[in-house]
Amino acid sequence: MNVPRFEISPLRAMVDAPLKIRLTGMQPGDLVTVRSSIADGIWTAEASFEVGADGTIDLEEQAPVSGNYSTADAMGLIWSASLQASPESLAGLRTNVEPFAITFDAASGGNVLASARVVREQVSDGVRREVVRDHGLFGTLFVPPNDGPHPAVMLVSGSDGGLAEGLASLFAAHGIAGFALAYFNYETMPKALVNIPLEYFETGIEFLRAHPMIDSHRLAIAGASRGGELSLLLGSVFSQFKAVVAWAPSGLVWGGFGGAREDGVQPAWLLKGQPVPFMDGAIHPDDYRYTVDYLRRGEGIPSTPGFLAQMNRYPDRVRQATIPVERINGAVLLISGEDDQMWPSTSMAEISMARLRAHNFPHPFEHLSYPGAGHGFRVPYFPQTMTEMRHPVDGVLYAFGGNPESSAHATVDSWRRVKHFLRENL
Q: pLDDT tens for residues 210-219?
C-alpha cells in the first residue's frame, strides 16, 4: 500500500534556491490541499490540487484548482503566502540573517496525509561575517569562503534606514563580498534621512579598498528606493565604483525624510558641507490633496501621483535635481516595477537612462522594468503579498503597489540578471 509523502529538494539551501515539490502515494482523483507555514507561521498559504492518475501532485507542473495562487509554480506557496502577524513583527526578521523553516502539509477530508520541513539559509557555509565599527562606520561585511581578493558590493538602505544584512550575505554566497552599510536610523546614528554627508560613504570605500580580502579595483554600489537614488548619486561622485545597481531608483535627488516638520524641507545629502541640489521648495498642497481620502479609509497612501505632480509642476527643479549619471565610472543597472506606488521609479529611472543615452555613456547600461510589479521586490522566493506597510520612520501607511504574481516573477528574473551583471562588470 502506497503511503502519501512529500518529495522536496533541496531540504536545506540558500533562500534564493528554488524548490521542487511533489506529493506521491495518493489516491488518483482525490482533492488534496497543500499548506505552507513560513517562519513559524508568520506567513501561510494554501492551494488545492486534484491528484493525477499516477497518484502524484507536482507543484512545478500542476496548477491548483483553488487557493492563494492559480498557476503551476513550485514556489507559489511561498510568494503567495499571507502575513499572519503584525507588520511590525517583521522588523527583526527583515534585518537578521538567521535560518528559517518552511513547513508543508497535505490534507484531504480533514485528515493530514503528509508533512515536510525545509530550512532556508541566509548565510552560506564558509561565509565570514565581520562587524565593522572602524572610523565611524556602522556596517557588516560578508566575505565569500574561497580565497580572495574578491569583488565587493556596498549595500545602502532606503528611507527606512537601519542595517539590512540579508542581501549582503546573499551576494557573498555567490562569490561577491557584500558590505551592508548603515547611514541613519541605526544604533547611535541620526534618526532621520537629513544632512547625510557623502564623505561617510567615501570612508566606506576606503575601508573596502584597504581590506586584504577585497579587490580594490572591483567595487560596486547598490541600493533600493532612496538607496537607489543614493547609489546613482554615489556612483556619479566616486569613481572607485565600477558598477551601480539600483532597485526602484530615482534619477532625481529628493529632500530629506523624517526630520522635524517645522524645519521645512531639508537636504538629504551633503557634499563638502553643502547640500546636493534637490527638489527643494514648498510642496504644493494640491499635489497631495488626494491623500486625505486614503487617510480617512485607513488605506495605504499611494505617493506616486504626488511625486509625478511635483515633477510636472516644477520642471526647473527637476533640471537642477537630476543626478549627473554620465559621470559614473562603470556599468549601470536599473530595476523598477511599473506599478510602483511608493514613488514613480520607472519614470525616474528613465530620467537617468535618457541622460546616459544623451551623453553617449561608454559603459553598459540597462533598465529592467516589470509590468504589474510594485516597489518592494528584491530577492526571489519570499512572500510578495504585502502591498502596503506602515513606514518605520514617519509612521505613515504607504502603498507599495504591484500584484504578488507579477512581483514574484520580477524578483526571480531581476535577481538572475543582477548576478550576471555584476559577474560581467566587476
A: 999 999 999 9
Residue 323's pLDDT band (cuts 50, 70, 90): very high
> How crowded is the C-beta side of 263, counted as CA atoms within 13 Å?
12
- Enter the C-alpha cell of residue 89: 513583527
Q: What are phi and psi of 180, to 5 degrees?
A: -80, 120
Whole-model pTM: value is 0.95
290 neighbors 302 (Cβ within 8 angstroms): no
Which residues, 6+ apart, have CB-to-CB distance to 296 below 8 Å? Answer: none
C-alpha cell at 312: 510636472
- The position carrying cell 535618457 is 354
Kind of pairing, strands 31-38 and 138-143?
Answer: unpaired
Pairing of strands 214-224, 150-156: parallel
Backbone torsions φ then ψ of 64, nearest 5 degrees? -70, 155
Q: Are 276 and 266 in contact (CB under 8 A)?
A: no
Cα of 296 vs its chain's centroid, Å: 29
* Gap between the Cα atoms of 79 and 405, Å rounded: 8
Q: Collapsing DSSP states into helix, strand and coil, what is residue 308?
A: helix
CA-to-CA separations, 132 to 129, 142, 163, 174, 178, in angstroms, rounded: 10, 10, 12, 21, 12
pLDDT greater than 60 at residue 124: yes
From the list 297, 269, 147, 111, the residue with the least C-alpha distance to 198 is 269
268-to-188, 264, 278 alpha-carbon distances in Å? 18, 12, 8
Domains of the chain, CATH where assigned = 5-121 (2.60.40.2240), 128-425 (3.40.50.1820)
Number of neighbouring beta carbons within 10 Å of residue 18? 16
HEC string of 136-193 equals HCEEEEEECCCCCCEEEEEEECCCCCCCCCHHHHHHHHCCCEEEEEECCCCCCCCCCE
d(CA 87, CA 172): 28
From CA 361, how far away is CA 345, in angstroms rounded? 21
Contacts (Cβ under 8 Å, ≥6 apart) of 292:
none
